[in-house]
Design brief:
With 97 residues, this protein is α/β, with parallel strands linked by helices. 43% of the residues lie in helices and 16% in strands.
C-alpha cells in the first residue's frame, strides 16, 4: 500500500490495524461499538478502518473538527472518534513514531 511517499507492506498494515483493534477492545469499545473515523485519506485512515473493522464509520471531513468535538459521545452511537491526533498519541504510547 502506498500513500504519498510512504509505503507499507500488507504485513505492516495488518500489524498496525491489529494493534489498534486490540487497543479498542482493551479500552472497552467491544465488538458492537461504533467507531467514528475523522481523517483524510491516508495510511492512518486505512489503519483506522481496518482496526475498527465493520464498526468503523467515516465522518465527513467537511464538518469542522471543533464541531465534532462538541458532540457528546453519549448523544451518539459512537464509542470513540479516531482522529490523526488520537491515532498519533496511541502510536506514541505503543512506542512507534
Amino acid at each position: 500500500m502506498a500513500f504519498d511517499n510512504r509505503r507499507l507492506t500488507y504485513g505492516e498494515l495488518n500489524q498496525k490495524a491489529n494493534q489498534l483493534a486490540n487497543h479498542l477492545l482493551k479500552v472497552g469499545t467491544g465488538r458492537a461499538a461504533v467507531v467514528g473515523i475523522y481523517m483524510d485519506r491516508s495510511e492512518d485512515m486505512m489503519v483506522a478502518l481496518l482496526g475498527a473493522g465493520a464498526s468503523g464509520v467515516g465522518l465527513a471531513n467537511e464538518v469542522k473538527l471543533t464541531a465534532v468535538a462538541t458532540i457528546p459521545l453519549s448523544a451518539t452511537d459512537l464509542a470513540i472518534i479516531l482522529t490523526p491526533f488520537i491515532l498519533g498519541l496511541l502510536r506514541w504510547s505503543w512506542g512507534q513514531r
